[in-house]
Amino acid sequence: MAKCVMVLYPDPLDGYPPKYARESIPVIECYPDGSSLPSPSVIDFRPGELLGCVSGALGLRKFFADGGHELVVTADKEGPHSEFEHHLSDADIVISQPFWPAYLTKDRFARAPKLKLALTAGIGSDHVDLDEARARGVTVAEETYSNSISVAEHTVMQILALVRNFVPAHRWAATGGWNIADCVARAYDIEGMDVGVIAAGRIGRAVLERLRPFGVRLHYFDVHRLPAEVESDLGVTYHPDVESLAASVDVASIHSPLIAQTHHMFNDKLLKSMRRGSYIVNTARAQETDQKAIVAALESGHLAGYAGDVWYPQPPSPDHPWRTMPNNAMTPHVSGTSLSAQARYAAGTREILEDWFAGRPIRSEYLIVEGGRFAGTGAVSYQQ
Ligand code: NDP
Fold first, then answer.
1. Quick check: CB of 336 below 6 Å from ligand 1?
2. Which among 26, 174, 210, 293 has most CB atoms closer than 10 A?
3. Is the pTM of this model over 0.90?
4. Which residues lie in coiled coils (predicted)?
5. pLDDT for position 384
């Protein structure tokens, strides 16, 4: 029998389950690269249900009960008196989501001597101290590709929201106004702009593909260049470093993993090298930008707008400066947890657990750390 502590975001304020807007979600046959969707033996939820909150429990309550395991589901994750810390001492498995991350620090690892498996429901395991996981032989896994397209769609929405000045215009409409001039005094067309992505991995490339029909000039920087035929098909210009890309675009969208090389990549110096009136969208990780430098660049008007859904820490304090900085179109960390995405990563979490309990290998593309080493996707994405 194993003990699993699952840290999920709180239920909706109006209670659970919510009244759903639609009956179902579209059926997807496979991921864009042809790889297969999660394939657990069975699922105990209806795709389209809210699974990522405490009452949703990723649709796994029956799975753990049937296996005779103990499952604790909580949203209480901060500080030494939190329910998460209380149950960590004898937990075998921790499951958390980047949207409401249970930070697994070195200190917390030390207080979790039985921990063997740290699962990310979604993508992005940087809330887990991966060096410590390797040192302790803890397996870390996530559901690669499960929400990549969800994030790409949110990114395109936020680019358009910034450039078209959507948020203030909506505010005028919702508050009884018809202030056309106030709405459009900062509104532009994206057509003809230079738009670049930092990292053309699963998400970055999906953003490029979705932006191609907008009549923009596309750019990218990545540590590895895309095949020539892909570059030509996308009509995208390659930049050998982020400095070159930043100086060449009107819109920069960040899609690189948070590692030492990308930490505070968009600092004061890089921001000043960008064209006046540039926009930045960051749906990767907040610490890839320098929080104070972003606020200063928006206040001075050098940046025309900043959007994204990633903050540090999460949740941010009520007075976090990014909540109120000028010309922002921030959302909470939601891009990768649409109901469509939840169905995929909940099924993927179950697939990993089924394999884990049966002693079968976990799919290589889901692995981040195994046997004291970066493995699978982790060996590609997190190895520095
Ligand atoms: P991928 O692994 O598919 O792509 C990451 C890309 O970044 C790869 O092409 C990689 O190159 C490149 N890269 C690695 N190091 C650097 C570097 N120093 N500078 C520039 N590029 C680099 O990941 P995804 O596209 O699926 O996800 C990207 C990030 O998005 C994740 O790390 C995660 O933090 C974030 N994310 C956010 C979500 C949200 O809800 N907001 C949800 C999902 C992910 P190569 O492979 O050649 O090494």
1. yes
2. 293
3. yes
4. none
5. 66
pLDDT for 269? 98
Q: Active-site residue among 154, 239, 285, 350? A: 285
CATH 2.60.40.10 is right for the domain spanning 187-326: no
287 lines ligand 1 (CB under 6 A): no
State the distance from the centre of ligand 1 to the C-alpha of 1, rounded, in angstroms: 36
**Residue 381's pLDDT is what?**
82
Q: How far apart are CA 216 and CA 329, in angstroms?
A: 21
Atom index in ligand 1 nearest the CA of residue 221 equals: 20
Q: Tell me, what's the pLDDT at 163?
A: 98
Query: For residue 52, which of 110, 89, 103, 95 has the smallest C-alpha distance?
Result: 95
**Fold matches, 3-146+337-375 and 187-326:** yes
d(CA 256, ligand 1 centre) in Å: 4
The active-site residue, picked from 87, 219, 239, 333, is: 333
Q: Is 285 a catalytic residue?
A: yes
For the chain, domain boundaries: 3-146+337-375, 187-326
Q: Is 128 in the pocket of ligand 1 (CB under 6 A)?
A: no
According to the model, what pLDDT value does residue 383 have?
72
Q: Whose CA is nearest to atom 31 of ligand 1?
A: 257
Pocket flag, ligand 1, residue 260 (CB < 6 Å): no
Whether 224 is catalytic is no
Residue ranges in the chain whose pLDDT is less than 70: 384
Report the CATH fold assignment for 3-146+337-375: Rossmann fold (3.40.50)
